[in-house]
Predict the 3D structure of the following.
Amino acid sequence: MTRALIVVDVQRDFCEGGTLAASETRSLLQPLGEYLAAARHLGTKIVFTQDWHPPNHSSFATEGGPWPVHCVAGSPGAELMPPLVAEAGDVVVHKGQMREGAGYSGFESTSLTEQLRKLGVQEAAVCGVATEYCVRATALDAAKAGFRVTALRDLIRPVQLAAVEPTLQELSSQGIEITDSRSWLKTAPQGLRHGSSAAR
């Protein structure tokens, strides 16, 4: 069984120092970078989603929306936050490219469902930022698309810390498993583990 790790919106503008920073993202970056290496070693497909907005996106306060300008397509703020980097074979999905629409979900107006199915993915774990917005929406849409979905509670960061538990409770009520990243890696199918070792 092919599995995917969907890393949601770990971009400069959503990390400390960015225009719309989530909480405590500094503590996320190194563990997430190490986890990506471990997941790749087991043959997990890596997916990065990125907000990729036009300069006049409807969510921006300058256009009457609720958020400061963030993650404008091609801008430094839209880049993946170091040390994260997409490697050859990873899937990169740009979302929120139309002026209208929140674009929270990595599946909204993108080809992510089709790309995952072409790769043979049946199960996906979701991590990244922000818990109560784009992580939530991406996890829910992944489940609606028929994937078995897990949210990795230690590798997500919210805008508001108080939103974490209610969001996880909502995801759980929709059939999404909530676990920690180490436990999810341990459940990798044995054949997948052996296959990735043999490939080396």
Q: What stands out?
A: The chain has one domain: 2-190. The helical segments are 26-41, 112-118, 131-144, 164-173, 181-186, 190-199.
